[in-house]
């Protein structure tokens, strides 16, 4: 292994796209969460992760990547949720890069394409580019960047099923997608049936990789990327959610109580969607939970 070449990484945090579909219960306008992309680069080549989802985000991210002056070989997608990858085709075309993911994530990407007209294009009409699934798997889920291992690790359920993370051992770095969050409300809607046990197991798997740095899929750009802090805060957020689910009787009560505990967290739309999904599934056990979760967004 060639360790004479030093790798580096930098994150680019895109702003959420504009939204024009009403207010949150506390009167704030609805607005999504910032989305983080990471460039891991050597002296010549680079790998990009999670290239966001609107045309505007793709342009901003692409200009930032171009400014780094590296040859972009691969674009890695952590999980199927469209906000992390619907713009992958624009970036792949601009830089002549390949899109890569684990088999589990690729299956989830197809599912998200199927829900585009029911969800994404309703929330963000006209903003999202064509999003065919072009991602491919690579042998052993492993890339090499100028002699350094870049490893895709399946970790299971986070905010979606079949999450993976990107581990760069020589940087002590994990790109955690939506398994670990950093200063942003977590999307718990898809944990309504399973509870948070599977997510806690995924966090354990990230921790077992021994990272010093974690770039989260959704992060407040003012915060650092300390692995211990982000892991601890992600666990605490789930613990608080469990506690509030037992003490708060309504979605609105949960929403308000979370804001009280996390006044500085970004992405309150995600908090409200989460509250509606968790309480909706609880209050209507006879209904399809996937339909309740979907309608919680609209
Ligand atoms: Zn996400």
> How many strand units?
10
Compute the gyration radius: what is it? Answer: 18 Å
**Major beta sheet summary:** 5 strands, mixed
Please trace the helix and strand order, writing H or E for each element: EEEHEHEHEEEEHEHHHH
Structural class call reads alpha/beta
What sort of overall outline do the alpha carbons produce when their principal axes are compared? globular
Tell me which oligomeric state these chains represent: single chain
Residue fraction in strands? 15-25%
Major β-sheet strand ordering = 1-2-3-4-5
Mean pLDDT over the residues = 95
Helix content: 25-40%
Number of helices: 8
Query: Uncertain regions: pLDDT < 50 for 5+ in a row?
Result: none
Which cofactor or ligand species appear? zinc ion
Distance between the termini: 50 Å
């Amino acid at each position: 292994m060639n360790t004479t070449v030093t790798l580096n990484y930098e994150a680019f945090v895109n702003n959420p796209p504009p939204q024009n579909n009403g207010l949150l219960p506390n009167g704030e306008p609805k607005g999504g969460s910032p989305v983080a992309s990471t460039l891991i680069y050597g002296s010549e080549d680079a790998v990009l992760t999670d290239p966001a989802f609107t045309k505007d985000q793709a342009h901003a991210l692409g200009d930032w990547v171009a400014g780094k002056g590296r040859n972009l070989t691969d674009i890695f997608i952590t999980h199927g949720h469209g906000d992390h990858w619907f713009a992958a085709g624009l970036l792949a075309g601009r830089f002549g890069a390949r899109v890569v993911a684990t088999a589990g994530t690729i299956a989830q990407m197809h599912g998200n394409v199927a829900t585009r007209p029911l969800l994404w294009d309703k929330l963000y009409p006209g903003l999202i580019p064509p999003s065919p699934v072009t991602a491919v798997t690579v042998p052993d889920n492993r890339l090499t960047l100028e002699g350094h291992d870049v490893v895709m690790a399946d970790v299971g359920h986070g905010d979606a099923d079949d999450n993976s993370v990107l581990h760069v051992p020589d940087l002590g770095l994990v790109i955690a997608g939506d398994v670990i969050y950093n200063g942003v409300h977590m999307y718990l809607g898809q944990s309504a049936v399973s509870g948070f046990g599977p997510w806690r197991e995924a966090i354990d798997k990230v921790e077992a990789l021994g990272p010093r740095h974690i770039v989260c899929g959704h992060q407040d750009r003012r915060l650092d990327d300390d692995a211990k802090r982000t892991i601890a805060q992600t666990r605490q957020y789930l613990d608080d959610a469990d506690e509030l689910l037992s003490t708060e009787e309504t979605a609105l009560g949960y929403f308000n109580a979370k804001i009280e505990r996390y006044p500085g967290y970004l992405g309150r739309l995600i908090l409200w969607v989460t509250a509606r999904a968790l309480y909706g599934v609880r209050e209507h056990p006879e209904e399809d939970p996937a339909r309740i979760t979907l309608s919680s967004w609209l």
